[in-house]
Amino acid sequence: MTTTHLLLHGGGGVHTMTKFADLLAERTGSEVLLPTHPGFGGTPWPAELTGVAELARHYVTMLDELDHTGVTVLGNSFGGWLAAEIALLHSPRVSAAVIVNGIGVEVDGHPATDISGFTLAEIQAHSWHDPAKAPAPASDGPSPDVQALIGYTGPSMSDPTLLDRLRDVQIPVRVLWGESDRIVDPAYGKAYAAAIPGATFTLLPRTGHLPQLETPEELLEALR
Fold it and tell me: What pLDDT, in 10s, does the model give residues 26-47?
């Protein structure tokens, strides 16, 4: 029976997940779904999608329409927050979740870096263990996808209720974190995992905020 992975990208856009999606499908033989969040990449943005919880319900409805079961949801950054919200919906379609350097919670003493005014180059400098390996930004202005991200999350890019709500998650969850993340640090990730019953936490060495881009083989190995 073919397994299904739903990959959820972060504020950098769907292209931050495409190569890893191919790698995951090739190595595991699973079916990989890689949607572009509405409003990202110039796609239409339905008026009813006013926040992260609404977007999570959008994806559960999509799984219902596709009649997929046993789905593992894997999200990076904003996609990690989405994966957490999907896990909280208790959909029978979803059997597990993987949060990779997720955002969305508020952790005392470990705030997420405010990237709302950052250029792409500045975001990359905070997102990579070795920023020299990051792709050259196409422009130096704010990314349209970051603007879409803030449209869903609000300027704080967090929900003060999320950390407490995570106690209601009932499916297996893995939390994976790049040790060099300067957007949300490893202590933030450990607090994320500690809030979820039974969740495991794995630190990825020589990796920043985007393991699927910087160390995809290590990320894949951590999923085994």
Answer: 999 999 999 999 999 999 999 9
Total tally of structural domains belonging to the chain:
1
Distance of CA 106 to the CA centre of its chain: 16
Q: Which domain holds residue 170?
A: 4-222
Q: Output the pTM of the full model.
A: 0.95
Query: Which tokens in the block code for residue 178?
Result: 């790049």
Q: Packing angle between helix 78-88 and helix 144-153, nearest 10 degrees?
A: 30
* Under-70 pLDDT residues of the chain: 1, 137-143
CATH number for position 141: 3.40.50.1820
